[in-house]
Amino acid sequence: MAHILDKIDTKILEILQENSNRTTKSIAAELGMTTSPIFERIKKLEKEGYIEKYVAVLNNKKIGLKLTVFIGITLQGHTRSYLEKFVKEINNFPEVIECHRVSGNFDYLLKLVVEDIEAYETFIISKLTLLPYLGNVQSLIALSTSKETNAIDLSRVL
């Protein structure tokens, strides 16, 4: 039977989305509880898959990745073989940080981060266009970013 999230579980998830580096002790203090039940709740949330992993969100510009590009991809064919080969190849490209199979005008939407326009051109020429089953490729270069988050507003879904 699936675990139903209560208000405390939801608050724990909100706190961890804001800063996953928070200690159990600090979360417990914020919620007016002791550390043991908070620790057990976090372990249960992890075990049940509500928390998939903990990551550090890097500042792309600080590490030299100044250009974000979204690429809409249409494949020449839609057989399972084409789709599997495409995904396998894309997963080998470190520049691609997201790959989504989508409906609409494209088969896939990629998000990549690179140093600059020259690095993007190199990616297109030396990697992407070498894939034999590509149909149409359309790129959108982000000029600026006004919102970028992985946090989910739990109040709208729970």
The gist of it:
With 158 residues, the chain is an alpha+beta fold.
In one word, what is the shape?
elongated
How many E strands?
Answer: 4
Oligomer: single chain
**In which range does the helix fraction lie?**
25-40%
The order of strands across the largest sheet is 2-3-1-4
The main β sheet shows up as: 4 strands, antiparallel
Q: Which structural class do the helices and strands define?
A: alpha+beta
- What share of the residues does DSSP label as strand, in percent? 15-25%
User: Residue-averaged pLDDT, rounded?
Assistant: 94
Count of helix runs: 5
Evaluate the radius of gyration.
Answer: 20 Å
Brief descriptors of the model:
158 residues, alpha+beta, 4 strands
Could you explain how this protein is built, in words?
The protein has 158 residues and is of the alpha+beta class. The chain is built from 5 helices and 4 strands; from the N terminus they run H-H-H-E-H-E-E-H-E. A 4-stranded antiparallel β-sheet has the order 2-3-1-4. A hairpin with a 6-residue loop joins strand 2 and strand 3. It is elongated and about 60 Å long.
